[in-house]
Design brief:
The complex is a heterotrimer. A six-stranded mixed β-sheet of chain A has the order 6-7-8-3-9-10, sandwiched between helices. A four-stranded antiparallel β-sheet of chain A has the order 2-1-4-5, with helices on one face. Chain A has ten helices and ten strands. Chain A is an alpha/beta fold. Chain B has 13 helices and no strands. The longest helix of chain B is centred in the first third of the chain and has 31 residues. Chain C has a two-stranded antiparallel sheet. In chain C, β1 and β2 form a beta hairpin. The termini of chain C are far apart. In chain C, 73% of the residues lie in helices and 2% in strands. The chains are: A alpha/beta, B mainly alpha, C mainly alpha. The interface between B and C is large, with 47 and 48 residues.
């Protein structure tokens, strides 16, 4: 048990089918205000792990503690009210609804009196979205969609924000912009946990890193210590870029 | 003594013929649902197509309706299978590329429209009066009910057994294995280059053709048909037969047909013997409700069975692999 | 051809439209074609009939029509109660059957179960009420001239208005309210909805209730305009599905527009070919949509 940790995942076993776990007893901790990255090769179970923390994949064993509460058995839609927000990788916005409707839906969790204020705050923080209020979210570009996904999660003022591969499908320039946004968000006190395939960008942003292989913890450490570590590169053989032109 | 046995014997063989013919429809449905996972809500329509086509091909000249071809019975039966199979191909080609329930809705529509045409296109189908004097196999024996029923039973039994054996072999053949693979894990099957649409269409057409054949055989056994023989109740009975018998296998289809047909017949006899005439319609409605409940309950409690559950696992592994 | 066909078409369309709106909602949000929807219509009509009879017997004068209508307070109260009862029936069906099947089996199993359930409900209704046609009121209504060679009874006009208002309300619910957004979210992406804090199970229950209530309204309207019989809902299934698919599954205005197309088409068919052929129109419309544009007028690609 990790004192001072906002999010504490202990020996979690999870998978879509009870007999076929994908996460095999992984543990992850994130302290208040930290950025923690989950890295690992394809099939490592990082995505499944983060979905399990969000409650979208059933957990067969282990514990999920958040801000002192045990979330392990809590239905997914209640977790966000506890302050744990999640932006999935693909299909992370409602494409058939307008940008505005996407935000209003998210605002449903905020007390009525504060709703308009929170929505306005998101438009302030993401001016691009404000310009395209009426546009169907499905028509947004990849980068704007990612911003909308983040805005939807931030709207409820979460204590922690979890993201599944926020860089997926984005050009290097856009990845920079998104990750700069994430740094801003951390600066405002929100804890961030992200799963990333783009190890270089993740290592540049994160404070601490977990490396998962086949659903288990393989390595854990300060991001600064792991930058340029050849072990990371070897894990990604045949995978994604680690050292390419910035 | 012989006289006492004849009545029940005639009836028993009649019962068996009907059970076997229902079993044949069920076999066709099993090809569509059990092997291919397609939901045909308009079974009665395809049976009706077979019955009417065969009747129209084989009956002599008649003022009441189109026809007068007087082809031999076997031509009628072939025509029935081809017609029903043909309509199945049309429906399948239209809907198989779309979501699964569009096929259900379209087949439902087919049954409605077939019923509509049968009832109203007087010149074509004889309207509400239907078509009579359909040539019966072994017509000469019709004077003796026992002999007639027994000989026809033999004929039907031979045909249905032959089809059963053929279907079993088909299921184990390469074609059948592709269907099974598609049923369990479509992505894997497509990866080895099998086009799902083509196989499904073939299976759907085969099932439809069998239904049409069964309709034709029944028409010729009884000798007359009318639109009211092919209402949604029939579709419903056949589905109950397949689900109760254990969907997914041919033997189950035949067994279910026999069991449900027996339940239907016995309850029918009980209603007409025990229930006062004024309430017979209500009792019949209750019987229908009971089978509806049975059907719904079976789907919840005992769904597709082994194959269905395995499919679920395969699909989720594929999903998990794709995400991380 | 008499211009009266326009009135017939509009009424027909409104009637199909009320049901089609319910179908398009449940189809898009629950994810399957519910064959029992027809029985919600039938059940709703019979429930209203029974309750209206009781209310009229208990409260003198409530059975009499309001003004020129043959619809009285008894029927209005009865319709409201019946809508609640039908919503209850829909919820019960969901609890008994569909909740158990959802997520655990292929979606087509739910269609199959709904088919079985539809048979059971229809047969039970026939058991209780017999198959003799029934009517809400024996009062004969005189059609009043509207100009341009058109005429309509007060009932017909009132019902057209009510249907229109209901459909507009549903559309506003879906597009402007939080529950409507939740419904659209669940329709598109249930896991994302969950992650956004939407109680998916509660939303599904709401959709069932709403669908049931709308179906009941449809049944009462049909009962008033034509008659009440056990097959009334079942016979509407094909036009309902055709209208919903024509309009694009998930689109309320689309479903209503599709229903109008089919309604007017049926009225034309009755004039040109005879009443017995009206059911063929829905089938032709269905085939045409599936051939040309399966996503429907307003829908996404399936």
């Amino acid at each position: 048990m990790n004192r001072g940790a906002l999010l504490s995942v202990e020996r979690l076993v999870a998978g879509y089918e009870p007999r076929l776990p994908i996460v095999n007893g992984a543990s992850v901790h994130a302290a208040q205000g930290e950025i923690v990255a989950l890295l690992g090769p394809n099939g490592a179970g990082k995505s499944t792990l983060i979905k399990a923390i969000a409650g979208l994949v059933p957990a067969a064993a282990g514990r999920i503690l958040f801000d002192g509460k045990d979330l392990t058995r809590m239905p997914a839609h209640l977790r966000i009210s506890e302050g744990l927000a999640f932006a999935p990788q693909t299909e992370n916005v409602f494409a058939s609804m307008s940008v505005d409707d996407n935000l209003r839906l998210a605002a449903g969790l905020v007390p009525h009196a504060r709703r308009a204020g929170r929505i306005a705050a998101m438009y302030e923080a993401f001016p691009d979205l404000k310009r395209q209020k009426r546009l169907l979210a499905g028509r947004l570009s990849g980068g704007q969609r990612q911003m909308l996904a983040i805005a939807r999660a931030l709207l409820v003022e979460p204590k922690a924000l979890m993201l599944d591969e926020p860089s997926a499908g984005l050009s290097p320039k856009l990845v920079e912009i998104v990750f700069a946004k994430l740094a801003e968000i951390r600066a405002s006190g929100v804890t961030i946990v992200l799963v990333e395939q783009n190890a270089r960008a993740a290592l540049a942003l994160a404070d601490r890193v977990y490396v998962l292989v086949q659903g288990r913890n393989r390595h854990e450490g300060e991001a600064s210590a792991l930058r340029g570590d050849p072990m990371i590169a070897s894990l990604y053989l045949g995978g994604v870029e680690t050292e390419s032109a910035a | 003594m012989t006289v006492d046995l004849l009545g029940p014997l005639a009836y028993a063989s009649f019962f068996l013929v009907m059970a076997l013919l229902n079993g044949l429809v069920c076999l066709g449905l099993n090809v569509q649902w059990g092997q291919t996972g397609l939901f045909n809500v308009g079974v009665a329509g395809f049976v009706a197509i077979g019955a009417y086509v065969s009747a129209l091909l084989t009956t002599p000249e008649n003022d009441g309706h189109l026809g007068g071809f007087s082809f031999p019975i076997i031509v009628g039966w072939m025509g029935a299978a081809i017609a029903a199979g043909g309509v199945s191909v049309a429906v399948g080609a239209l809907t198989l590329r779309l979501r699964a329930d569009y096929l259900a809705i379209t087949t439902f529509g087919v049954a409605v429209v077939v019923q509509l045409i049968a009832l109203n296109a007087q010149q074509l189908t004889g309207g509400a009066f239907g078509i009579a004097f359909i040539p019966r196999p072994f017509e000469r024996l019709a004077a003796s009910p026992v002999l007639y029923n027994l000989v026809n039973l033999a004929l039907v039994a031979v045909v249905v057994s032959a089809i059963f054996v053929a279907l079993e072999r088909l299921a184990r053949s390469p074609w059948g294995r592709v269907l099974r693979a598609l049923r369990e894990d479509e992505r894997a099957a497509m990866a080895v280059g099998k086009s799902p649409a083509r196989f499904r269409l073939q299976a759907f057409a085969l099932g439809g053709a069998l239904m049409g054949l069964a309709g034709a055989m029944e028409a010729h056994f009884i000798g007359f048909i009318a639109p009211e023989n092919y209402l949604s109740t029939l579709t419903f009975q056949v589905w109950a037969m397949l689900i109760v018998g254990g969907s997914g296998n041919n033997l189950g289809a035949l067994l279910g047909a026999a069991v449900v047909w027996a339940m239907w017949t016995i309850s029918g006899l009980l209603i007409s013997d025990i229930v006062p005439p004024a309430h017979e319609a209500r009792a019949a409605a209750l019987r229908l409700a009971a089978i509806g409940v049975l059907l719904a309950a079976m789907i919840v409690v005992r769904p597709r069975g082994l194959i269905g559950e395995r499919a679920l696992v395969s699909r989720h592994i594929a999903d998990a692999d794709a995400s991380s | 051809m008499s211009p009266q066909v326009i009135i017939e078409g509009l009424l027909n369309g409104a009637l199909i439209g009320l049901g089609a709106v319910g179908v398009t909602l449940t189809y898009s949000i629950l994810g399957f074609a519910n064959f029992a929807h027809g029985e919600f219509i039938t059940f709703g009509a019979y429930a209203a009939l029974a309750i209206a009879a009781v209310v009229s017997a208990l409260v003198v004068g409530f059975g009499d029509g309001l003004g020129p209508l043959s619809i009285g307070p008894a029927l209005i109260l009865a319709a409201l109660f019946a809508m609640a009862l039908t919503a209850g029936l829909a919820l019960a069906l969901d609890r008994l059957l569909f909740t158990r099947l959802r997520g655990k089996s292929e979606a087509i199993s739910m269609v199959m179960a709904s088919f079985g359930a539809s048979m059971a409900i229809r047969a039970l209704i026939e058991f209780v009420f017999t198959s003799r046609p029934a009517y809400f009121s024996r009062d004969l209504q005189i059609a009043r001239p509207l100009g341009f060679g058109l005429k309509a009874t007060p009932n017909q006009l009132a019902l057209l208005l009510v249907a229109g208002v209901l459909v507009v309300c549903v559309h506003l619910l879906l597009s402007r309210t939080q529950i409507g957004r939740a419904m659209r979210a669940v329709s598109e992406n249930p896991p994302l909805a969950r992650a956004s804090g939407v109680d998916v199970e509660a939303t599904i229950r709401f959709v069932w209730a709403l669908g049931g209530a709308l179906a009941c309204a449809s049944g009462v309207m049909l009962g008033l305009l034509v008659q009440i019989r056990p097959f009334m809902g079942f016979d509407l299934l094909l036009p309902l599905f055709a209208a919903a698919i024509l309009g694009g599954i998930g689109s309320v205005p689309g479903a209503f527009a599709g229903a109008m197309v089919i309604g007017i088409g049926e009225a034309l068919a009755v004039q040109l070919a005879g009443a017995e052929w009206r059911a063929a129109v829905a089938f032709v419309a269905l085939i045409a949509v599936l051939l040309i544009r399966p996503g429907g007028i307003a829908g996404r690609k399936p």
